[in-house]
Design goal:
This protein is an alpha+beta fold. It has 2 domains: 96 residues, Beta Barrel (Ribosomal Protein L25, Chain P); 89 residues, Beta Complex (RNA Polymerase Alpha Subunit, Chain A, domain 2). Helices cover 21% and strands 40% of the residues. It contains 4 helices and 13 strands. The strands form 3 sheets. It has a 6-stranded mixed beta barrel with strand order 1-3-2-6-5-4. The chain has a 4-stranded mixed β-sheet with strand order 10-7-9-12, with no helix packed on it. Strands 8-13-11 form a 3-stranded antiparallel β-sheet, with no helix packed on it. A hairpin with a 6-residue loop joins strand 5 and strand 6. 22% of the residues are buried.
């Protein structure tokens, strides 16, 4: 079920320190560092336009990357910081942390709703209201789910679906203990009014019937 992993290419940066970093920027790169997992830090360079494209795509800090560095094995990393120029707001340095398969990471996981045709509420004309189409889950780096599944079988109008109602993939868990709402089956327009009208009809008819009845002779 692994998913949510994006490839990211980089080159090994020769030399460290401010001088090497400035040289990298002059050549059209953004310098970075890869650290963690008990290994020595690795200085890298990323092509400026290539990195900017990934940053503009969004959620850069919440994405697990398969970092491909020339001459080295691919490694799973997450970004732990992007330094920017205070005037131009462009990236000037990127920090990445290495992960192994048993590392736990928080990611946005897509929510998929299934079995719409098996929901009595939707058959009656109700509407599925999606409150969250993604949720934050803590997952294993080596087993990231593509999505979580919400089964709509048996859902009636007015039913509310919470995160605790969903069977999560093995190893995944919410980042909060709060039982937040993912979606609900809403009533169609006029549905509530019709129900109220039906319930109110006998009560309205009773006074009218009483008024129409002949007065009892004394």
């Amino acid at each position: 079920m692994a998913g949510q992993v994006a490839d990211l290419k980089a080159e090994v940066r020769m030399g460290t320190g401010k001088g090497a970093a400035r040289q990298a920027r002059r050549e059209g790169y953004v310098p970075g560092i890869v650290y963690g997992d008990g290994q020595e830090p690795t200085p890298i360079n990323l092509d400026y336009n290539y990195l900017l494209k990934h940053l503009k795509a969004g959620r850069f800090l919440q994405t697990l990357f398969n970092l491909k560095v020339a001459g080295k094995d691919d490694v799973h990393v997450v970004c732990r910081g992007v330094q920017r120029d205070v005037v131009r707001d462009v990236p000037t340095h990127v920090d990445f942390m290495r992960l192994h398969d048993e590392s736990r990471i928080v990611l946005h996981i897509h929510v998929t709703f299934i079995n719409h045709e098996a929901s009595p509420g939707l058959k009656k004309g109700g509407t599925l209201t999606v409150v969250r189409n993604e949720v934050d889950l803590e997952v294993l780096a080596g087993d990231i789910p593509d999505h979580i599944t919400v089964d709509l079988t048996g859902k009636e109008i007015g039913d509310v679906i919470h995160i605790h109602d969903v069977v999560l993939p093995e190893g995944a868990k919410p980042t909060t203990s709060r039982n937040f709402v993912i979606g609900n089956v809403s009533a169609p327009a006029g549905f509530v009014e019709e129900e109220v009208a039906v319930a109110a009809a006998p009560a309205a008819a009773a006074p009218a019937a009483k008024a129409a009845a002949p007065a009892a002779k004394s």
